[in-house]
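Notes on consecutive records. When two proteins share a document, each keeps its own sequence and its own token line. Never mix them. Below: protein one.
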Amino acid sequence: MGNMDSDLTQLGFLLLVSALVAMLTRRVRLPYTIGLVLAGMALYVLQIHIRWHLSKELIFSVFLPPLIFEAALFINWENFKKDLPVISVLATAGVMLAAAVTAVGMHYALDWDWGSATIFGILISATDPVSVIAAFKQAKSEGRLRLLIEAESLLNDGTAAVAFVTALAILTGTHQVFTTIAGNLLLTIVGGITVGAVTGFGLMFLAGRTPDYLVEMTFTTLAAYGSFFIAEHFHMSGVLATLTAGLVVGNFRSSSAITRAGRRALGPFWEFAAFVANSIIFLLIGAQEAQQHFKGIAFPLLVAVAMVTLGRAVAVYPLCALFIKSRFAVTYQHQHILFWGGLRGALALALALALPYEMPNHDAIVTATFAVVAFSVFVQGLTIPLLLRKVRPAS
């Protein structure tokens, strides 16, 4: 990354661009994320060199923890618990169904080998919390619909990341028996949740021992990053750990465990952290989208977008139908938004960029991922606010 001084200069420049884009997009009523991606593309075209590049390390180590923590912070545990059956089914079986549909499509339509098709299906099947939360926050969507789509995008990240690591291990020849794979999966999920809960409760206990709200904010920052890094270090799910820590801290907020000043500062502090992380991610997505060469490969990319969209439909409608006669029933209008609001973004790119170079179809997978993310940002991102306005009375 070069020396520290130029890194800080780079950060300052990107924040200035983000702030100007935020002001401009609000004025012209354009979704903020689209403005950032366009700004990132413009920086590349103008040959203003951004030295940071999207990588799995950058996204996972720097940006994902604050984004997941901030989103989880505002999820009400009681409401979350009420809808957990629907959210869990969408975030587990939904991801697997979407991945299967995409993999089959890529194999038969483009003649990709099963390994490449499966890896692409898995990494692209999870909806991205970064994109989803940004879109729904800007559209000022509230209530059950927002809870369903945000909670699903947070949980299905965990599913996709775990499935991706498992599939990659099988494909790269570290053959393991089924029981070992199942055991590892269980450890990854349960371990991640446990680490998040222990870290969250432990640091909130410490936060309750000080009258200084700045120290309390420091403990919440440690909860976000600490839970993620501890879980990842022990090969557990960092995403689920940070999600759990965020739920713990967010639902502690209403208690007297921390000071009144701490409770007041928590929301704005984390909203700012998420704004910074979001801004830089979408600027970098724009800069890297501008470097992609989509010419001459329109057909494979259209197939990829079509398969991912079909996979999402198969993940949403049949699974929601399972709950139609129960108190968990999701209205058809909300199902349409769950389907179309399943945006892809930074997580898919992070996983695609982490693929080993010797992987068959490596470049094709990365290009297809960028194409699907571009479709998500521009087509779905622009139309989601219109769709939300139409269903507002039903929310």
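Protein two starts on the next line and is unrelated to protein one.
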Amino acid sequence: MEYQFQTGTLLLLIAAVVAMLTRRLRLPYSVGLVTAGIILAVLPFAPKIFLTKDLIFTALLPPLLFQAAFYIPWSQLRRDFSVIPVLATLGVFLSACVTAVGMHFLANWEWISALVFGVLIAATDPVSVIATFKEANVHGRILVLIEAESLFNDGTAAVAFAVVVALTSGQHLTSIAITALLLNSIIGGVLCGAVVALVALFLTGRTDDHLVEITFTTVAAYGSFLLADHFGFSGVLATITAGLVMGNFKSFGGISERGNESVQAFWEYAAFVANSLVFLLIGMHEAHQNFVAIWLPAGIAIALVTLGRAAAIYPCCLLFSRTSLRVTWKHQHILFWGGLRGAVALALALGLPAEVPLREEIITISFAVVAFSVFVQGLTMVPFLRRMGEIPR
């Protein structure tokens, strides 16, 4: 326990120093953290802490998902509520198909390995996306689109991944069974999140103690995820739902005025800590990946994932081109290049069962795609946003 406390303290110290340096150098915080993690991993006193699916999903992801959803206003989300589900469902399907087909024919992977990789890498990571866009001080419709799409995209990809993994384990699922499994996971996750959030709001309305109010929001963030996961539903969608419900009903007598200020400060800090640990650990893990040995399939994968993201954005947005929900070309380009990959894809890859063919190659190439996403897309995102006119030059 003492060693873990020392490790956590060291990582937080590094995160704070990196935050100061990246702000002075005007670099993306995520890039600085991953770089710091790579450097830290090769030092003789590097802490022995490993990136695992459980660590990401159970400890670090719930506060990030909850905090992001908590501040998405329902009035703005409702306007684009037809666009976002299409991007997060049909978009994920198209992206996964492009990647899977390409890995099968170009990298000579067997179909099941290609399909597993295609689905897990289709999820744009809300951790990376939201951090990058908020650092760039982006506002308006594009911020809501990119935040909401990355959150729901993440949830549907995780649900689809569970189905694909079930198929790899030898289960013979009919189309009806697959549909039932998907609906069960999605609806169950949403219901768990809504119930936990409403109970938390009810209890919060019975106190004006800001510390108790913070505690109830924390219970909602983690409790919704754990409850849904316990019943085999989507924990990701449960936490997103809990955040949306608590964030948009907090002004209706649930959270007091003082409590609202305290809750906001607490969740900003919680997201900062979780975000910092995620990217530091990604960097530490990437330092031990042998990318040279898999440079060709990794290069193919990066090209296919980029192409898959284009297939997820442009055709889906075309469906709304003649409606009031039309997404401008400028915003489509931002959605395309803003589809960063990160902790979610890695958590899914690290949680692959041992019997999945090419498991180690899938994990290593997933890290390669995330490295490209962080360093190439992350470093060029702000100049790209300036060129698109979303932020001042």
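For the record: The CA atoms of residues 137 and 391 lie 7 Å apart.
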